[in-house]
Amino acid sequence: MTIQHKLITGADLHEPKGVASASNKTVYVANGSGSGAWSTIATDSLALPKGKFYFYNTSSPYTLAHSSSTAKVAPTTVASGYGSLVTEATSARLTYTGTPTTIVKLDYDVSLSQSSGADRDIMVSIHRNGTVIPGSQSVVTSVTGDLVQMAGSCFYNAATNDYFEIYAQNTSSSGDMVFQKVALTLTAT
Q1: Dihedral of the alpha carbons of 147, 62, 105, 44, in degrees to the nearest 10
Q2: Which of 1, 55, 154, 186 is deepest in the core (most CB within 10 A)?
Q3: pLDDT at position 15
Q4: Averaged pLDDT in 10-residue chunks for the chain of 189 residues
Q5: Nearest to 187 by CA among 55, 113, 42, 80
């Protein structure tokens, strides 16, 4: 008598072949030829969203002209080349291209100065599709001529084609911002 596995129910169900000798935290991986083996899945082989761009130039920094509102920090950037499910543009933008909506972590860091002749409060934030992500903002008081380092991070539930950028604002009445370094990283949580 031949028993078809799809017809086995309840208490007659059994564990996969070889489970008694399988190592802890391994999974059975089929080989496509009617068999398989117990294996550990390496997370570096999984397609998880990740991407990064950066700009670094001390001899010819990027200048963002003073504005009364936030503006995109838009130097010509370098893609990391390690992007997965993320487009790393040279236009200071990361675009999530994965299909499922997923939570991602965004981290930025910048080095900047201003030379307005007075101390200025500088705000930096991460924007999704041109709109600030609440909680991503940070503020520093920049002493005239001094280089300051700012960093921040946030989580966001990214959907297909959401794009992420860094914005900044000199919240005072005048003073251009000069960026020697700009970087944004997106990683899976």
Answers
A1: -110
A2: 186
A3: 66
A4: 71 69 80 79 74 97 93 97 95 96 97 90 97 97 92 97 97 92 96
A5: 80
Q: How far apart are CA 1 and CA 10, in angstroms?
A: 20
* Residue 124 neighbours by CB under 8 Å, 6+ apart: 73, 108, 110, 137, 138, 139, 150, 152, 166, 167, 168
Cα separation of the two ends of the chain: 50
CATH number of 47-188: 2.60.120.40
160 token code pair: 């297909």
Structure tokens at 121: 């409060």
Residue position matching structure tokens 């959907």: 159
Give the three-state DSSP class for 65.
Answer: coil
Would you call 106 helix, strand, or coil by DSSP? strand
User: What letter represents residue 47's amino acid?
Assistant: A
User: How far is residue 106 CA from its own chain's centroid?
Assistant: 4
DSSP 115-166: -SSS-EEEEEEEEETTEE-TT--EEEEEPTT--EEEEEEEEEEE-TT-EEEE
Q: Write out the residue limits of the CATH 2.60.120.40 domain(s) in the chain.
A: 47-188
Q: Which of 168, 59, 68, 27 is nearest to 108 (CA)?
A: 168
